[in-house]
Amino acid sequence: MRSVLVAAIALGLGGCPHAGPAIPALPGQGGPAWTEISSAHFVMWTDAPAARGKDLIARLEHHRLATLEALDNHQDSAKIFVVALRDADEVGAYVPSEFAAYAMPYGNAARRPTIILAADTGDDQDERSTLTHELTHVVTFSFLPDQPPWFAEGMAEFFATAKFYGATTVELGRPLAHTQQALRAGHMTPMADVFACHAHACMDRKFYATAWALFAYLVNNHLHELLGYVERLAVLPRGATAPTWAEVVPSLPAEQLDHAVAEWLAHGSIGTPRYEIEATVFPTTERPIADGDVLATRALLRASFDRERDPVATHEAIAAALAADKTNVLARMVEWQVAHAVAADDARATAAAHPDDWRAWWLLGYTLQHGPEAKEAHDKLCALAAGDPLVDVPAGFCGPRAAP
Question: I need a labelling partner for 107 at 20 to 30 A (CA). Which of 149, 251, 283, 303 fits?
Fold first, then answer.
């Protein structure tokens, strides 16, 4: 069960919103070059210098290895899509101001776990914790696709405590400075409110600190109960509603946890185990990214963060991406995500242009819905799914009687 404990994460740290000037010109219009950098577990699209991108992807691989080693999880996983924008200003042009970086699960339009972050993220403890936080989050979406926020953020804060000693030793469990400051500044959020929080509006610094305290308390004092809750999350079908803590562990109600966690923080001891990891070098490959893919990436970001806040900007971003490349798979997937429809001829052309991309066949099958052509798209999708862990289809979709 330790392998399942790689749980969800989405860390909110400070950031500043910026307007259009933070977004540079396209490469074809004199802007910075975009590069795809691929490693064993990541595909990064970045407009930062390629050397910076390679350094960042090496750090991501290192963080991933350390996190999985600490959890005794050595299984391989789907490649993670990383959008590494050149700096915090460019990130702030898309991502809400309360986030310095953001992780999205499989259900986003890219149809793979996705992280958006600044390529100039530094390597001090605070910025390293942001990377670890987001990385742990996105790695675990394939294990636990639906977690309640208290669990996601508590696990996030717990694994964000990773402290590295050289290249091969990592320590976990020591609370971060911002967590300690939030706890000193006032009492914890009542556990009943923490369990009930399901919106960004209630996820303030006090919530994050309390979620860390709760999760760390359970790790140190009630690991059996915590693992039992993880087991319930692990068997949930994707998209299902997670059970509440009270439903799974009625012996530890919120009122009891209020007192127990406070007592533990005041008088208990926090374990800080160290883990040895292997010093591994992950080779990378590079290729330039054209304007069409850059525009599709920007459309993905707009659709993810501005679809309701600024629908006009979202539709303009999609239109610009499709004007540059009408068969761009990512752009068409974003169009589907926003409009829930793609013209049949456009879906056919996209599948014809990208026969090895399962998303193109997914798009065609869901566009046509019925008939021999839809069945052919379904069969091609399932053939690609058989050997590709990136394929995000509902359970049973590729069963013997399944059809788009």
Answer: 283
100 pLDDT higher than 90: no
- Whether residues 142 and 52 fall in one domain: yes
CA separation, residue 222 to residues 60, 215, 252, 254, 396 (Å)? 31, 10, 9, 14, 35
The model's pLDDT over 245-260, given as tens digits with 9 standing for 90+, comes to 999 999 999 999 999 9
Comparing CA positions, the residue from 221, 226, 191 lying closest to residue 206 is 191
Beta bridge partners of 81: 43, 114
Helix (H) or strand (E) holding 32: none
Which parts of 71-120 fold into alpha helices (H)? 88-92
Q: Say whether pLDDT at 19 is over 70.
A: no
Residue 404 domain-assigned? no
> With bands split at pLDDT 50, 70 and 90, how would you rate the model's confidence at 13?
very low
Instruction: Specify if 212 maps to a domain.
Output: yes
pLDDT > 80? residue 118: yes
Identify whether residues 231 and 358 lie together within a single domain: no
**Mean pLDDT along residues 133-137:** 78
pLDDT at 125: 60
Are 330 and 206 within one domain? no
Q: Could you tell me if 325 and 292 are in contact, meaning their C-beta atoms sit under 8 angstroms apart? A: yes
Q: Reduced to 3 states, what is the DSSP secondary structure of residue 239?
A: coil
Quick one: which H or E segment has residue 250?
A: none
Q: In sequence order, which residues have a C-beta less than 8 Å from that of residue 358 and are 6 or more positions away?
A: 381, 384, 385, 388, 390, 391
By percentage, how much of the chain surpasses pLDDT 90? 47
pLDDT over threshold 80, residue 404: no
311 plus 361 within the same structural domain:
yes
CA distance 285 to 298: 23
Scanning the structure block, which residue is given the tokens 């740290």? 13
Residues 125-149: what's their mean pLDDT? 75
282, part of any domain: no
Q: Is residue 397, in this structure, part of any structural domain at all? A: no
CATH of the domain at 74: 1.10.390
